[in-house]
UniProtKB/TrEMBL annotation:
Predominant place of localization: cytoplasm
Entries under NCBIfam families matching the protein: QueF-II
Pathway in which the depicted protein is active: tRNA modification; tRNA-queuosine biosynthesis
GO terms under cellular component: cytoplasm
Active-site residues, Swiss-Prot/TrEMBL: 49 (thioimide intermediate), 56 (proton donor)
Residues that coordinate or bind substrate: 71-73, 90-91
Function per UniProt: Catalyzes the NADPH-dependent reduction of 7-cyano-7-deazaguanine (preQ0) to 7-aminomethyl-7-deazaguanine (preQ1).
Name of the molecule in the record: NADPH-dependent 7-cyano-7-deazaguanine reductase
Enzyme Commission (EC) number: 1.7.1.13
Catalytic activity line of the entry: 7-aminomethyl-7-carbaguanine + 2 NADP(+) = 7-cyano-7-carbaguanine + 2 NADPH + 3 H(+)
Amino acid sequence: MEETHLSQLGRDVRGFDSPEAAVVERVPNPHKGETYLVRFTAPEFTSLCPVTGQPDFAHLVIDYVPGEWLVESKSLKLYLASFRNHGAFHEDCTVAIGKRLVAELAPQWLRIGGYWYPRGGIPIDVFWQTGPAPEGLWLPDQGVAPYRGRG
């Protein structure tokens, strides 16, 4: 297995002021060549509305099939937390996260579902993926029910 330099794991890291400043780290995939799914769920993702500055909340589900690399989970957590003071629309946040992970990891396949809680009475769900899922991949439903309000 290749050696990797991890600057955040096992260290006190206070976080990042912006997604651009956040460091997404990776580790070698011990099962290169296998087709398997890795899922990260962030049920309390937060960003800011770029117009009002009010907080927006989402339940993110990130599924990917690793290539040579796995994302180091602490760095992913810190990257997602860097959106807390970042102003961007739901669509931009969701797609930008997917693209950043693709750029850092070069996975075989990746999809992200952003299930945003309502603002102004309208929930917005945003989905992005790199293409068709690999053949033979067991791909479970993301498990987030459509928004039903009180009903």
